[in-house]
């Protein structure tokens, strides 16, 4: 398939991909694609290249789903594998873009391919889409292009993103299980309060006797649920929505939430280890790629995913830039435990800092795996006990009058 070279577009003009069929200068059938701002511009460009166009149409992409970090990780691994196998860059983009299951990803990759075809470097093509390719990703690709080891750095980048993806999945799974059980417990309790207990209340009216105190309390709570269910559900939903919006828009809320999760009981230790693992693996990846330490720390703070560590990294970067060694700067931040500091110190002294940082990240990731497994095992009996007390207490409170009536009749 031929690909026609488009003319330079006006600044700010939006380009589209056009698919064309026709004949070349030799009268042979030809077809291909061209990027242009309109169909008229595309036809004019093709005519100047000596092509006689029979058919031209704008390429349409099926609407696809949201582009996720998992999609970018998979693309990075596929691109690295193809380049290591000797597949040319543009051809690799074409293969991955057209073969991707998510049309949105395919369109994104073909747009980047078109930018590279028109003279942009690969890192420049990625920088046009900061929503999907962060500064760390772009900086490593740029370093690989400059050093002539793009396929090696893409392989390292793919490994890094796979490790980060696995770590995030483990943390999410650790938090998702108890959260989903608690939500189900609330829903079941609400259904019992709104629909089941009022039926018992009608039956108890015919008894003509005083009800036990637990039953009276449960009925009073049920009456409140029946009368104000809209307020209860609205308040909970509104509070969650307000918190999420405030977290997105307010830096102060993000700082407070990030500080809280690091100090949270049970889960705080796991999240701290996961954050330090991301921090050390990111720094190891950047440093091994030949990025200077001070410059590498620019990307490390944001990649840690926690504001406390982002601020701490800025402090570390400032101290390192004035001549302080990395170990001392990390110690001054008070964000890292002794094991991490000792490993970094050994790495600095031996000249193998990237290797030691990789080992620290691997050790902490293994600890996170063990902690998540232990938490899952620990949470199951606790959650079952809570559900048993909650649901069992409601059932017993409702059946107490029936037991009392049976004792009287007996």
Automatic annotation (TrEMBL):
Entry's transmembrane regions: 174-197, 228-244, 382-402
Positions of the Type II secretion system protein GspF domain: 75-198, 279-401
Swiss-Prot/TrEMBL GO biological process terms: protein secretion by the type II secretion system
Location within or outside the cell: Cell inner membrane
Membrane topology: Multi-pass membrane protein
Keyword Kinase among UniProt keywords: no
Primary location group: membrane
Annotated keywords: Cell inner membrane, Cell membrane, Membrane, Transmembrane, Transmembrane helix
Matching InterPro entries: GspF/PilC (IPR003004), T2SS_GspF_dom (IPR018076), T2SS_GspF_sf (IPR042094)
GO CC, one annotated term: plasma membrane
Family recorded in the similarity comment: Belongs to the GSP F family.
Protein name stated in the entry: Type II secretion system F family protein
Native source organism of the sequence: Candidatus Proximibacter danicus
